[in-house]
Write a structure and sequence with these properties.
The structure is a single chain. The chain has 779 residues and is an alpha/beta fold. It contains 30 helices and 25 strands. It folds into 4 domains: 254 residues, Rossmann fold (3-Layer(aba) Sandwich); 113 residues, SecA, preprotein cross-linking domain (Pre-protein croslinking domain of SecA), CATH 3.90.1440; 188 residues, Rossmann fold, CATH 3.40.50.300; 157 residues, no CATH class. The chain is 51% helix and 14% strand. Strand 23 and strand 24 form a beta hairpin. Helix 5 crosses helix 7, helix 7 crosses helix 8 and helix 12 crosses helix 14. It is flat and about 90 Å long. 44% of the residues are buried. This is Protein translocase subunit SecA.
C-alpha cells in the first residue's frame, strides 16, 4: 500500500496534476523531529530560547533550508507550542510547516491546526532574518492569531505584532517593525497605498516586503483577486440625479425595461424610453443633448433593477453598506464606482457620500507579487490549484488529516421550485433538531437567512442568525454552533477561521453530541463554486468528529437560471413535494456550477490581463518616486530650471535640508496628480474598449496602444509642471506659498474596495453572443 501511495505521488508530480507536490522528503524528516523531543524537554525556557537564537544565527541570510534546519525548526516549534499553548503539534501540522517554509500552498482540512502550522513557519522565516507578514481574511483573525500565538513566538525569540483599522501611524510602524506581523489583506494593502503618497521618508510605515504567508489562501488569492483596493481623496459632494432616480423607481420589468438572464445588464424598452423622456420634460435621450441624462438613467436603472437590498447591500445607520459576495459579510470600506454608489444612495433615499478622486489602487495579485517569497494555507486549495499556479506560480501540497474524516456527505436533494425546496429544508431541520444534533445552515444571502429564520420561528424552531447585520459577533456565534440542539443560520462562509467544536466552546456535551451524530450541515443552494460547497461541508467532521452534510437545490435557483437556464426535457417532479430524483437534474446543476466557475475564472484572467500593464507602469513610476523621496533629485532639477529663484529661496530658508523638502513636495505633488489622472484615463479607455471589439480590433491590444504613450508623458510632464509651480510660487518666511500655487493635496483621504468593472466585460459580451447563437440553433 505504501509503495502504491509513493508511485501515485510520483505520477501526479510527473503529469503536473493539482496537488502534486511531493511530500516524501518531508515525511522522512518527522522521525528525526521526534528524536529531538526528549532532549528539548529537558531545557529550561531560557535555554530553549537560546537554542532558537543559536539556530537563527546559522540561518541568517540563507536562501533555503537544509533538512537538518527544517528538523530543528519543527522540533523547537513543537516544544515551544507544548509549553506556551499546551498543544503538541501533530506530525501533519509539522508537514504543513515544512510545506510553508518551502514556498507552497498547503491544504489542511478544517480543524487540523493551520494557525499553529502557519505560526511555526513564520517563526522559521523570521529566524532566517526575513520579515514575515501573515495575511488573513479579516481584522479579527489577525489580532486573535497574533495574540494567541504570541507566547509561542516569545519562547522562540521572535517578535510579533498586528495591524488593524483603529491603529494610528505610530502603532502601525511598531507592528511592522516586528519580525512577524499579522494583518488582513485589505489593511496591509491600504498601508502600501498610503506609503505611496508620503512626502517624507519618516512617514513610511512598511519596510520592504520579504515573506507573505497567506491564511485562507483560496479566499485571499482567488475570491478577493478581482476586488482592487483603492485610495481616494475627497473632491466634492457626490450628488446623484434625484429626478432621474424618482422616474426610474416607477419603471416596471417587462414593460419599461428588460434584463439579461445572468442579471448583469438592464436596458430600457421603447415604452420605457418614452416614459423617461416625457417625465424628464420631453428630452431626447438618444440625441446629442440628452447624452448626459441617458448616462444617469442607465446608472439609475442598474441600481434599481440589478442591485437588491439585503442581497447586494444593506442600509444601516443611514448608509448604504455593500455585502462582500465571497463571505456574506458587510464590506465596511467597499463601495461601487461613484456614479453607481450615488445612484444606490438615491434609490434608498439616504444621504449621499463624498465623491472621490482615485489617487492609487492595487489588486491582491499585485500586492502579493511584491513579496519575493509567498506561501499559503487553506482547507480547499486543490480546487483552485490551476489558478494558484497560473496567477501566483504556487504549487499545492495536500497534507493528510491527523484523523481520517468520517463525515457523511449525502446526495443533493433537488426540487422543482425554491418554495418547495424551502419547505423541505424546514422539515429537514425539524427532523434533525428533534434528535438533539446541532445544525448549521448555510444560506446564499442576508435576505434568505432572515426569511428562513422567520419561517423557523413560526414553526417553533428557534435559531441564531449570523449574517452581515451582526458580523461583529460572528466568531462568538459560530463557535457555539456545535452545542447540543443548536440551530445556526449563516450566510455563506461567515465565521470562517473559527472552529466549530462539538458541545460548544466549553465542550461539556461533546461526547453526547458526538454519539448523536455530530454537526449536521445544510446548504440551501449550491454555490457558484464547488470549492465553496466544500468549505461549507468542511465545517462538519472536524478532527475526525462524526458529522454529515447535505445540499438542497432547485432548478429555479439563481445558479441554474444564470448559467444553465435551458433545461433538458422530460424531468418530472413528485406531485406533492416537488422533489426530483432524475439524474438529469443533478447533471444540470453540476453543469451550471461548472459554467459559473468558468465565467469567474475568465473574468479573473481578463482583469489580470488589463492590470498587468498598469502594474508594470506603476512599478516604473514608483521607482522614480522613491528616488525623488530619498534623494535631492527634485532640488537638482528645480535649481537647474530656475537657478536665481533657487538661490534666493536657499538664502531665505538658510537650511539646505528644508529647501530639498520644499522642492520634493512640489515634484511629488505633480507626479502623484499625473498618475491619478492616468488611472482615470485608463478607466475611461477600458470602459469604452468593447466598442473597439465591435470594430473587430483586439481590446487588449487597443488598451495597450492607448495606455503606453500616455504613461511615458508622466515623468517629463511632472518636471515641467513642477518647474512652472516653482517659478510662480511666492517666496514667504516659511519658504514657498505652495497652497496659493495650487499644490493642495486632498484634505481627507479614505480607502475602500471596489468591484472591478461591475458593468459588462468583453468576455460577458462574448458569452451573450454565444448563448444567443445557441438559442437560435435550437429554435
Amino acid at each position: 500500500m505504501a509503495l502504491i501511495s509513493r508511485v501515485g505521488k510520483r505520477l501526479r508530480r510527473i503529469i503536473q496534476r493539482p496537488g502534486s507536490v511531493e511530500l516524501t522528503r518531508y515525511e522522512g524528516l518527522l522521525r528525526a523531529v521526534e528524536k529531538l523531543e526528549p532532549e528539548l524537554e529537558k531545557l529550561a525556557d531560557a535555554e530553549l530560547t537560546e537554542r532558537a537564537e543559536k539556530l537563527a544565527g546559522t540561518l541568517d541570510g540563507a536562501s533555503t533550508y537544509t533538512d537538518d534546519q527544517l528538523v530543528e525548526i519543527c522540533a523547537l516549534g513543537r516544544e515551544a507550542a507544548r509549553r506556551a499553548l499546551d498543544e503538541r503539534a501533530f506530525d501533519v501540522q509539522l508537514l504543513g510547516t515544512m510545506g510553508l517554509l518551502t514556498g507552497h500552498v498547503v491544504q489542511m482540512e478544517t480543524g487540523e491546526g493551520k494557525t499553529l502550522a502557519g505560526a511555526l513557519a513564520a517563526a522559521g522565516h523570521a529566524m532566517r532574518g526575513r520579515r514575515v507578514h501573515v495575511v488573513t481574511v479579516n481584522d479579527y483573525l489577525a489580532r486573535r492569531d497574533a495574540e494567541w500565538m504570541g507566547p509561542l513566538y516569545a519562547l522562540l525569540g521572535v517578535t510579533v505584532g498586528w495591524v488593524e483599522p483603529s491603529h494610528a501611524k505610530d502603532e502601525r510602524k511598531d507592528a511592522y517593525d516586528r519580525q512577524v506581523t499579522y494583518g488582513a489583506v485589505a489593511e496591509i494593502g491600504f498601508d502600501v497605498l498610503r506609503d505611496r503618497l508620503v512626502t517624507t521618508v519618516d512617514d513610511l510605515v512598511q519596510p520592504a516586503p520579504e515573506v507573505a504567508i497567506v491564511d485562507e489562501a483560496d479566499s485571499v488569492l482567488v475570491d478577493e483577486a478581482r476586488v482592487p483596493l483603492v485610495m481616494a481623496g475627497s473632491i466634492d459632494h457626490n450628488d446623484a440625479d434625484e429626478e432621474v432616480a424618482k422616474v426610474v423607481r416607477r419603471l416596471r420589468l417587462g414593460l419599461h425595461y428588460e434584463t439579461d438572464t445572468d442579471g448583469r445588464n438592464a436596458w430600457l424598452t421603447s415604452a420605457g424610453a418614452s416614459v423617461v423622456e416625457k417625465s424628464l420634460g420631453g428630452i431626447d435621450l438618444y440625441g446629442e443633448s440628452g447624452s448626459e441624462r441617458l448616462a444617469a438613467v442607465n446608472v439609475a436603472l442598474h441600481a434599481h433593477a440589478l442591485l437588491t437590498r439585503d442581497v447586494d447591500y444593506l442600509v444601516r445607520d443611514g448608509k448604504v453598506q455593500l455585502i462582500n459576495a465571497a463571505r456574506g459579510r458587510v464590506a465596511e470600506l467597499q463601495r461601487w464606482p461613484d456614479g453607481l454608489q450615488a445612484a444606490v444612495e438615491a434609490k434608498e433615499q439616504v444621504t449621499a457620500t463624498d465623491r472621490g478622486e482615485i489617487l492609487d489602487s492595487i489588486t491582491v495579485q499585485a500586492l502579493l507579487a511584491r513579496y519575493p517569497e509567498v506561501a499559503g494555507m487553506t482547507g480547499t486549495a486543490v480546487a483552485v490549484a490551476e489558478q494558484l499556479r497560473e496567477f501566483y506560480r504556487l504549487e499545492v501540497a495536500v497534507i493528510p488529516p491527523n484523523t481520517p474524516n468520517v463525515r457523511t456527505d449525502q446526495q443533493d436533494r433537488i426540487f422543482a421550485s425554491p418554495s418547495q425546496k424551502l419547505r423541505a429544508i424546514e422539515e429537514e431541520i425539524r427532523t434533525v433538531h428533534e434528535t438533539g444534533r446541532p445544525i448549521l445552515v448555510g444560506t446564499q444571502d442576508v435576505a434568505e437567512s432572515e426569511e428562513l429564520a422567520e419561517k423557523l420561528a413560526k414553526a417553533d424552531l428557534p435559531c441564531v442568525v449570523l449574517n452581515a447585520r451582526n458580523d461583529a459577533e460572528e466568531a462568538a456565534i459560530i463557535a457555539e454552533a456545535g452545542k447540543k440542539s443548536a440551530v445556526t443560520v449563516s450566510t455563506q462562509m461567515a465565521g470562517r477561521g473559527t472552529d466549530i467544536r462539538l458541545g460548544g466552546t466549553d465542550g461539556t456535551t461533546r461526547e453526547e453530541v458526538a454519539e448523536l451524530g455530530g454537526l449536521h450541515v445544510i446548504g440551501t443552494a449550491r454555490y457558484p463554486s464547488s470549492r465553496l460547497d466544500g468549505q461549507l461541508r468542511g465545517r462538519s467532521g472536524r478532527q475526525g468528529d462524526p458529522g454529515s452534510a447535505i445540499f438542497f437545490a432547485s432548478l429555479n435557483d439563481d445558479l441554474v437560471l444564470s448559467n444553465a437556464p435551458d433545461l433538458p426535457e422530460g424531468i418530472d417532479s413528485d406531485s406533492e413535494t416537488g422533489e426530483i430524483t432524475d439524474p438529469a437534474a443533478h447533471r444540470q446543476i453540476n453543469h451550471a456550477q461548472r459554467v459559473a466557475e468558468g465565467v469567474d475564472l475568465e473574468i479573473h484572467r481578463n482583469t489580470w490581463r488589463y492590470t498587468r500593464l498598469i502594474e508594470r507602469q506603476r512599478a516604473e513610476l514608483l521607482e522614480h518616486r522613491d528616488k525623488v523621496l530619498r534623494t535631492g533629485l527634485a532640488a537638482e532639477e528645480l535649481e537647474q530650471a530656475h537657478a536665481e529663484k533657487f538661490a534666493e529661496l536657499k538664502e531665505k530658508l538658510d537650511d539646505t535640508e528644508r529647501l530639498e523638502q520644499v522642492c520634493r513636495e512640489v515634484l511629488l505633488f505633480h507626479l502623484d496628480q499625473l498618475w491619478s489622472d492616468h488611472l482615470a484615463y485608463l478607466t475611461d479607455v477600458r470602459e469604452s474598449i468593447h466598442l473597439r471589439a465591435l470594430a473587430r480590433e483586439t481590446p487588449l491590444d487597443e488598451f495597450h496602444r492607448a495606455a503606453i504613450p500616455e504613461f511615458h508623458k508622466i515623468i517629463p510632464e511632472s518636471a515641467v509642471r513642477a518647474a512652472k509651480t516653482f517659478e510662480e510660487a511666492a517666496i514667504t518666511e516659511d519658504g514657498l506659498d505652495l497652497a496659493e500655487a495650487g499644490v493642495r493635496r486632498a484634505n481627507t483621504t479614505w480607502t475602500y474596495l471596489v468591484h472591478d468593472n461591475p458593468f459588462d466585460s468583453d468576455f460577458e459580451q462574448t458569452i451573450k453572443r454565444v448563448r444567443s447563437m445557441m438559442k437560435m440553433k435550437k429554435s
